[in-house]
Amino acid sequence: xxxxxxxYDGSDGESCDKPPKRARMDKDTDEYLKRRERNxxxxxxxxxxxxxxxxxxxxxxxxxxxENEMLEQKVQILSKELSVLKDLFLAHAGSVAQxxxxxxxxxxxxxxxxxxxxxxxxxx
Length: 124
Description:
Elements: H1 30-105, H2 114-123
């Protein structure tokens, strides 16, 4: 059973003062023309907002693409810099290792014997 509407008594099948919501209005009335005008204005505003939002979105996409390209170039530069620094480090580390091994193999100093060490201690 449908709920009772306050503007409808239901006994004789006729409604009271208000027409149903979906009732068609006469297209020649002032009320209809005012509603159409308000609707047309609302539609124009809505479409303008939609166009503006699309424009802002496109601008943001373009800004982000430009920023992305800039960041990708920076990554490439930093990667090259890292590669150069790694090569320098490895070259330096290699030369240090070679010089240390050369020093170890060419060390001609005579080892200090316990006797010499202890005698120099006693002289002091």
